[in-house]
Design brief:
The strands form three sheets. A four-stranded antiparallel sheet has the order 3-4-8-7, with no helix packed on it. It is of the alpha+beta class and about 350 residues long. The protein is elongated and about 80 Å long. It has three domains: about 140 residues, no CATH class; about 30 residues, no CATH class; about 150 residues, Immunoglobulin-like (Sandwich). It is built from seven helices and ten strands. The longest helix has about 35 residues. The relative contact order is 0.10.
Length: about 350
Amino acid sequence: MLKAIGDEHDEAVAAVMSASVGVMGAGVEIAGGAIQMLRPDWEVSVRTAGRVVPVGLGARILQYGGAIVSVASVMEGLQYALAAGRSGKVGDEAASNTYKFAAIASAGSALSGVIGSIGATGFLLGPLAIAVLLSFVALGVAVWARGKESQPLELWARHSLWGLPEEHRRWVESHEMDTAIGALNAALLGLIAQLDVAYRLQMRGKEVLGPGGSMDYKIVLPGYKAEASCYEWALWAYRQREVPGQIIASGRTDDTNAPFPAPTSTKQPGYVPATTAPVIQHDAESETLEIKGSIAFSGRLDFRALELEVSYWPDKSDESGVARLIVKEDKIEGQLWESLF
């Protein structure tokens, strides 16, 4: 899951963290329950309200386990909140609202777990039982929400001239018909193109060198046959008041796939040209070609937008059967690092 790019990457990170913390908390709870069952006479002294009182060791460990599981519920709720934002952005309002309900249920589960972990020993099982129940409810609602998300063909219809709601329409002019047909072919084939900008601190050992990050892209071409198919792609970058933009990485069938040279018109390209070479993997058994790359940059990214264009011909002898997909990333927050450093 961590190989995902874009909005889905954040959801995958939250899911992995939730699962990892949840397993750890469950292990602690199992240990506490076993001690409570096998050796209920084991006690520890706890200071509360200015006095020292004995508390069952197993019950105390159960409380700690409940607190850890509450953290997992928080991460689970974050995952569902991110999914609500992602689905809402593409117009899946029903799925978005359902994800929001799942996030609320996860928050309730976390709250119940916290109450159980800090409450009296005799009060322990009630809130923890509610926390477990709400966690199952959140999971079930999230699965329901996932089923409500639009499929590629449904998204294409929403972006077409007759799509609803109107703000999601993309191809409304007659000269955009070829783009719409190419996008339809891409949806039918299952062509995937993803683009994201990831910000991170640059480190050398324990020394912080400063801000930086990478421009990550991934292309998956289904039904690819080396002898019969062909493709071409280009990653465009746009600066403020710059028309047209510039190509910072590209590739095509039988290309050398070497690093793309920086434009001669720019003294400081704003990225590391040596990192523009893509990594290409062809799985002949599944007939899938994957193209991915990560273009590094240091300091502030001075691009205002990125655009990944992919054209794919499953049968290169049929020029009209092209699948074309364009992915844009126009919310690049290059100013973010300036506010932090």
